[in-house]
Design a protein that fits this description.
The structure is a single chain. This protein has 101 residues and is an all-beta fold. The protein has one domain. Helix content is 0%, strand content 41%. The termini are far apart.
């Protein structure tokens, strides 16, 4: 997959190839796109913020744009490329204005 295949503030159901070589389904929310990877929240299990390389995505099953009132906010410092240089995932809490948090 390529950077152009994804949009920020969009939910995706994907098929992802993990480091073990196995294909797995993944439900993610895309926060930020960079040239080599994107920052996503795993919305199905852990809720972790992850660095996901475009080459690891095998297939986009479904995509849903998130309206502004439902978009999750994240501190800008966590969405910078230099923050992710040595990290694969981060546990961070985010909130949406529509849920009152």
């Amino acid at each position: 997959m390529l950077k152009e295949d994804f949009e920020e503030n969009t939910r995706y159901a994907l098929t992802v190839r993990r480091k073990s070589g196995k294909l797995q389904p993944a439900n993610v929310y895309v926060y930020r796109r960079f040239d080599e990877f994107m920052i996503v929240r795993n919305t199905q299990n852990s809720g972790l913020l992850e660095k996901l390389c475009y080459g690891d995505v095998e297939k986009i099953v479904r995509s849903t744009a998130v309206p502004p009132a439902k978009q999750f906010a994240m501190p800008e410092a966590l969405l910078q490329a230099k923050f992710w240089a040595e990290r694969e995932f981060v546990e961070a809490y985010s909130s949406s204005p529509s849920v009152g948090k």
